[in-house]
Amino acid sequence: MTNHITTKWLGEMAFESTNPSGHTVRIDAGPESGGSGAGLRPKALMLSALAGCSGLDVASLIQKMKLEVDDFKIETIANLTEEHPKYYDSVTVEYHFTGSNLKEDKLQKAVDLSVEKYCGVMEMFRQFAKLEIKILYHHK
């Protein structure tokens, strides 16, 4: 299967990138790089893709396992190298679950399945970065 994305220059430092879903994403540089900051930064977008990919897996498993979760968020903290080309050499992915009836063992299994088996973006990141996975439970 092939994904085909078209990314069109809008002038200055802004681009619009299509997605197979039919939605578009605006990409822009910050003012320090000649942009207006009116879009997402490419490297940061990679972290959103990582969290989104794994988040979709976990959300699907939460529903399949009929788990009660009031709130679920993923914090992604990445270290950028200092030399060009700058890339992420280490990434911490924190899964935060909030609820009054959290089944920690099953949530752990859901995260493990995403990290080790399902998330293709996680596998891509594994090729160039050291990954650290943390799960935090916030009981109400």
UniProtKB/TrEMBL annotation:
Q: Offer an example of a GO molecular function term for this protein.
A: peroxidase activity
Q: Which UniProt keywords apply?
A: Oxidoreductase, Peroxidase
Q: What is its EC number?
A: 1.11.1.-
Q: Is Oxidoreductase set as a keyword in this record?
A: yes
Can you say what this protein is called?
OsmC family protein
